[in-house]
Amino acid sequence: MKKLFLNLKAFLLSLKSKTPEKISKTLLREAFQISSAESCTGGLVSSRLTDISGSSAYIKANFVTYSNEAKHRILNVSEETINTHGAVSEECAREMAQGLLQLTKSDIVICTTGVAGPTGSERKPVGLMYMACGFNDKISVKKIKLNPNYSRKNMKFMFSEEALKFVLETIQDK
To answer: Which of 40, 61, 69, 127 has CB atoms 3.0–4.6 Å from 35's, for a disulfide?
Structure first.
């Protein structure tokens, strides 16, 4: 029963979230461009940003770098980082953001890497995500842990909501 209510909560949030609209207004007002590189969210951050009419004015490039190879080849995440810390790590998220900033020259970037489930490990449990936001030559990384009982689809939505809130916090604190 708890699982049902948890997933209902995520569904309701997906219907009422205004985070992408708030980001859009700020990006348009400040004439900022944004890019994303996603792993665990599988393009959902990009999708939610492009759901807003006029988003072509501020979206520069979006990538789904799901595999370790894509993280390395597209974003220049070092193989050593992936082998030592894993793809789901603060270090990987930071390197994803560094690579995306260098590749796109965007004003702001958001990157996600995590475990959406249904399986994880003791060290990398379901619900763990690292997100990196690059802005003004500074990269900030946040680690979040969500309830592992979300369905995979709802976990991805909740991850995307956290990432978008991180973008909003970052550009509003400029």
So the answer is: 61
Strand order in the sheet with 34-38: 59-64, 34-38, 108-114, 128-135, 138-145
Q: Which amino acid is at 111?
A: C
Phi, psi of 113 (to 5 degrees): -150, 130
The 10 Å Cβ neighbour count of residue 12 is 10
HSE value, Cβ hemisphere, 13 Å, CA-based, for 77: 32
25-55 confidence digits (pLDDT tens):
999 999 999 999 999 999 999 999 999 999 9
Closest by CA to 101, choosing from 48, 47, 36, 57, is 36
Residue 2 has pLDDT above 70, yes or no: yes
**Parallel, antiparallel or unpaired: strands 128-135 and 138-145:** antiparallel
Q: Which residues contact 13 (CB under 8 A, 6 or more apart)?
A: 157, 158, 161
Rg (C-alpha) for the chain, rounded Å, is: 15
Residue 42, strand partner residues: none
Identity of residue 43: G
Q: Tell me the three state secondary structure of residue 27.
A: helix
Residue appearing with tokens 């809130």: 165
